[in-house]
Amino acid sequence: MNDPRILNWRRIDARLTTSGQPDVAALAALRDLGVRHIINLGPHTHERALADERGIVAGLGMGYINIPVPFDAPEETHYAEFCAAMDAHGAVQVHVHCIVNARVTAFLTRYRRDRLGMADDIARAPMDSVWRPGGVWARFVGDTHNIAAPHRYAGRDYPVPVTPNS
Question: What is the pLDDT confidence band of residue 148, given thresholds at 50, 70 and 90?
């Protein structure tokens, strides 16, 4: 199975997938795809968060870390934790999720551009396939020209870009 049917699921490369909030069946499907570690950037208190996700993931034999990023206040400390988690699991397949894959793709854009040295257009392709942030998230990813703009979502506010591996 290549697509575990999770909101905004993306295969980034052979080692990394991202998505919105998976349910229990989707977590099992991710494990079956070879994922060995889950990184969750969504708060456990969100109404769409999965109750006891840590326990469910552990029961499936995968590792788990939660870095709860408030949607209205991403911080550099969150990004530092994310980088450390990504770097610590570089040898295994990792799935990173939040509620709709907005937080994740913003973090991933910075990580791929600033840590891995990818060209900006390549680094941001997964984000552009989900959303184009405004406000605090535009500032977070370095899009100073969009800080005053609203968030825009693919398929609603602009056509979904066709990009490889997104």
Answer: very high
d(CA 37, CA 141): 25
Give kind and range of the element (H or E) at residue 2.
none
CA atoms within 13 A on the CB side of 34: 11
Instruction: Tell me which residue of 83, 135, 142, 77 sits closest to 108, measured CA to CA.
Output: 83
- Cα–Cα distances (Å) from 134 to 15, 43, 94, 98, 143, in that order, read 29, 21, 27, 18, 8
Report the candidate in 20, 60, 58 with the shortest Cα–Cα distance to residue 40: 20
Output the average pLDDT for the chain.
94
Q: Are 114 and 151 in contact, with CB atoms under 8 Å apart?
A: no
CA 146 to chain centre: 20
What pTM, to 2 d.p., does this model score?
0.93
Q: In what order do the strands lie in the sheet with 37-40?
A: 10-11, 16-19, 94-97, 37-40, 63-66
Listed in sequence order, the residues at least 6 apart from 61 whose beta carbon sits closer than 8 Å to its beta carbon are: 31
Q: Is the pLDDT of residue 166 over 50?
A: no
Q: Are 150 and 120 in contact (CB under 8 A)?
A: no
| Residue 98 CA, distance from chain mean position | 6
